[in-house]
Amino acid sequence: MTRALPAPVYGAAGLAALLAVLEAAPRLGLVDARFLPPASEILAELGGLLLTPGLWIALGETLRGWALGLAIAFVAAVAAGVLIDLVPGLRAASNSTIEFLRPIPSVALIPLATLLFGASLGSTLLLVVYASFWQVLIQVLYGVADVDTVARDTARSYGLGRWSYIRHLVWPTALPYVMTGVRLAAAVAFILAITAELVIGSPGLGLEIQTAQSGGAVPTVYALVVLTGLIGIAVNVGVRALERRVLAWHPSVRGTSQ
């Protein structure tokens, strides 16, 4: 019986095929090399950029905005979700407000962010927090609603305190949902961080891409885009690893690890 190859092997093969296409297309004249340089030229430009301190400063600014925004959104969403669950009637009262605010795209807040904070970290945080908050909050609400009714009644009959009720009943039930929200929010937060830097001009990789595009440095633009893609992959892998570690006790994670 043929043994299936590990998933990373297929991923590496797909990436190699993409690089081969990007290398061949401009060299065969299928696309204008002025607008799409060969992959080897893009990777060489990326290698050169990695040796410059300016790139690492910009990368640090992007990751700072991403991490701070995600952390703020996480704390606020978990607190709001638990509060909505604890206060009788608050879920019904807040449902229409949540459904009104949640579909508003974060990019629609760019004019407001520019007016309030200008081209600074504050603009990035406003967009990142707003987009990430809803991803986590919705999952928290699903999680707290999934607490077993019998367990709730038992906790009340035994006079379990509010903090003990949250710690021993609500949080373990909601945690898998919370981690799903964090995984979704991490990707959205990174996208919004780059978007804020591109459009508003906040310091970071997005601003570097905009500057290179304005200067006609096409290989640099593609190199920076490739770098953002690689960081996005690293973010996703890192959050998934964190999810598996945090939920090591959960049957769904134990089942996939066996």
UniProtKB/TrEMBL annotation:
Organism from which the protein derives: Acrocarpospora phusangensis
Subcellular location: Cell membrane
Residues in ABC transmembrane type-1 domain copies: 51-243
Classification via InterPro entries: MetI-like, MetI-like_sf
Alphabetized UniProt keyword annotations: Cell membrane, Membrane, Transmembrane, Transmembrane helix, Transport
Family indicated by similarity: Belongs to the binding-protein-dependent transport system permease family.
Protein name: Nitrate ABC transporter permease
Membrane topology field: Multi-pass membrane protein
GO biological process: cellular response to sulfur starvation; transmembrane transport
PROSITE patterns: ABC_TM1 (PS50928)
Membrane spanning residue stretches: 40-59, 66-87, 107-133, 174-200, 220-239
Cellular component, GO annotation: plasma membrane
Gene: ssuC_4
Domain of life where this protein originates: Bacteria
